[in-house]
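Hi everyone, sorry if this is the wrong subforum. Our group has a chain we'd like a structural model of before ordering constructs, and none of us has done structure prediction before. Sequence below.
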Amino acid sequence: MTPFLTPFPRQMKYLREIKMTRFKIDVAFINRENEMAELRNYLEGRPNSILFLYGPKSSGKTTLMYQLFEQMEAEKRYEINFLNLRKIFLTSYDDFIDDAFTEKMLKKRQEDPFLIMEREFQRLVKKGIRPVVIIDEFHKLDGLYLPDKQKRLMVELMNFFVAMTKENHLCHVIIASSDAFFIEQVYVDSKLRKTSEFMKLDYLEKEDAFVWLRDIKKY
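Answer:
Right subforum, don't worry. Here is the predicted structure as tokens:
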């Protein structure tokens, strides 16, 4: 990870701890080869859209993201920035900034954080590294506003991600959510629908669940 912009240092520390302890992430990672292949195909292409990963709670979205992170990190071609909003208590814009940026960057709090991220993405691309932003439970940002109280943080982030993917082709963005209403809002927004892809992750099929239960002692 880069020292200038992790972003999301606390979450990356958590991911490193998972890797060190070899947490058995494959417990819930059963018969997800097709979904993993779809995610990898998205990341292999030129950044041109936001990928929304949606599905019911406990269907394995976060586990799939962690598995993707481990695979991509090993390849050294990607700079993956992972923010799991399930693990963060957010009540304000400042809470988000404190978790999304490093201490060094916070010294420049008066600077536009979107410009800071864009410059970092440009720097990575020049080095041949593909920036990837993954935000889990993105809908938790709803209700947060920028300091001027006029702009919703979620809307401004979405506009920024459209610019970074569809317009400037600088980074890939994966947004995961278990909130069906949020996904529906995105889908009915004509601008977002034209700049987005949607991938559904459902519960395991009954046969796969039985396999897991039968062999649960292996895990």
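For your construct planning: Confidence is low (pLDDT under 50) at residues 1-28. The domain at 9-218 is CATH 3.40.50.300 (Rossmann fold).
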